[in-house]
Structures are given as structure tokens and as C-alpha cells.
């Protein structure tokens, strides 16, 4: 067979292959029409909030300390830091108990702002990190079964909306922790049953719960660890870590008030969507998570 004939045969096969491929594509690709665009509105803060699913059963099965298990909270923080390591557009995260909120920049183009992609990616990284780092924080406890988290996305158009959202979550932290501290204090120190403790606290306001804690349990609520009372806010910092002179991005857990103005004045780059500036007051012995991709 001549070279010319070979070219003719190859041309025929190539034509048949491309035709069959086109037919297969046209035959099955129609299923993509069932998908829908779920892009988040432009110029809005994107907040992804994760909540533990059936976490009451999970904490009971793993015998978490009451009212707070510090190791469990630190594990949540480490898992949230893993999300921030993966996605630089997450400028801040806030967590308490079994929930975490991730704040994405208003101008983010992550996954073309597709809601389902952003939500599923953050949830999967957080959940898998929780399992991955379990033994780091619970060396003496076996993970009996994997935890699960549900997720939602909410958009906030203004900076004040975002601040009000975070203020709401931190106020909720205080309300829930004060109740739980008083509730478990009455059980562990006064020997009350669950129902009896509930009746004592029913209808009480914050000042009354504080008084019950102090008089009945000998506990000054203000002396409780800030991580319990205020939750954890994760922020990015650019620092010089010895012995290297190179700049490194780190994620720092803070247990501070985020309702007032002082936090937002100190970390003004968050709302202004600016790059993180070099932090000269950073102490290398502070708790932080090193961003591996920096």
C-alpha cells in the first residue's frame, strides 16, 4: 500500500472517530442542562457556617469534658486553620462549641463564586482535617466514628452586616457558655440532677446566672478561660520567624472581643480587603499555625 493510500485510510478512520465522539457527546451531554448556576452575588461578603451534626451524641460517645473540653475546641481551631491554609480568600474565621464561620473576601472569585462548590469544598476540608488531627489532641481517645457537619452560605452586602453577624455569633457564645457553666456547675458541685439544674436556671437572666455560679458553685465567671467565654477568631499575620529572615504567613487564634471597634481597627485590612502587613510585635512563642504555601 502506498503512502498516499495510508493517508486516505487514516483520514477515514479519523473522520469516523470524530463523528462517533461527537455523537456520543451530543447524546449524553444533555444531562448538563439539569445543572443550574448558583453563583453568589457580586460585592458581598460570603459567610460559610458549619455546624456539628448530631454533636450531642458525638460528644457523649467520646466523653467530652463538660461544660467545655479545651482539647475539642483546639481541634476545631486546627481544622478551621486547615481551611484557611487551603483558601487564601478566607480572611477571617470565628468558632465556638461545634460551629465555625468562614469569611471570604467580598471580591473573591473562588470557584467563580459558585455557592455549592465553595460550601462543599470548605466542609470537606474541615471535616477531613478534624479526623486527621484527632490523635494530635486526643492521644488517649480512639475516634469511634467520624463526625459530620452541615453547612450553609449567607451573603452580607455591607461591612456593618458582617460585623453584626459576627457580633451575633460571639454574643451567642457568651449566652450559651454562661448557661452551660452554671448548669454543669450545679450538677458537679451541688449534686443536682439535670432536671433540677434546669429548673434552677429556668427564667434567669445573665446577672442571676452569675450570682448562682458565684454563691452556689464558688465560681467567678469572669475567671473562666477566654476561649470559653469569647470563642476563637482566626486571623492572618505576616511575620519573621527565626532563624530564617524570610517572611512567613501564619494563622493566629485569638480569644478577644470582636463586637467593639478595637479589633477592627487593629485588623483593618480585613474589611478593606488589603494585603496583610508585616507584624513586628509578633512573638514566636505565641500559638500559631504556619501556612505551608507561603
Automatic annotation (TrEMBL):
Q: Where is the tRNAHis guanylyltransferase catalytic domain?
A: 28-157
* A Pfam entry, by short name: Thg1C
Mind listing the UniProt keywords for this protein, alphabetically? GTP-binding, Magnesium, Metal-binding, Nucleotide-binding, Nucleotidyltransferase, Transferase, tRNA processing
Q: How is the cofactor bound?
A: Binds 2 magnesium ions per subunit.
Transmembrane spans: none
Checking InterPro entries in the record gives: Thg1_C_dom, tRNAHis_GuaTrfase_cat, tRNAHis_GuaTrfase_Thg1, tRNAHis_GuaTrfase_Thg1_sf
Q: Does the keyword Metal-binding apply?
A: yes
Which reactions is this enzyme annotated as catalysing? a 5'-end ribonucleotide-tRNA(His) + GTP + ATP + H2O = a 5'-end phospho-guanosine-ribonucleotide-tRNA(His) + AMP + 2 diphosphate + H(+)
Q: What does this protein do?
A: Adds a GMP to the 5'-end of tRNA(His) after transcription and RNase P cleavage. This step is essential for proper recognition of the tRNA and for the fidelity of protein synthesis. Also functions as a guanyl-nucleotide exchange factor/GEF for the MFN1 and MFN2 mitofusins thereby regulating mitochondrial fusion. By regulating both mitochondrial dynamics and bioenergetic function, it contributes to cell survival following oxidative stress.
Record text on subunit structure and interactions: Homotetramer. Interacts with MFN1 and MFN2; functions as a guanyl-nucleotide exchange factor/GEF for MFN2 and also probably MFN1.
* UniProt name for this protein: tRNA(His) guanylyltransferase
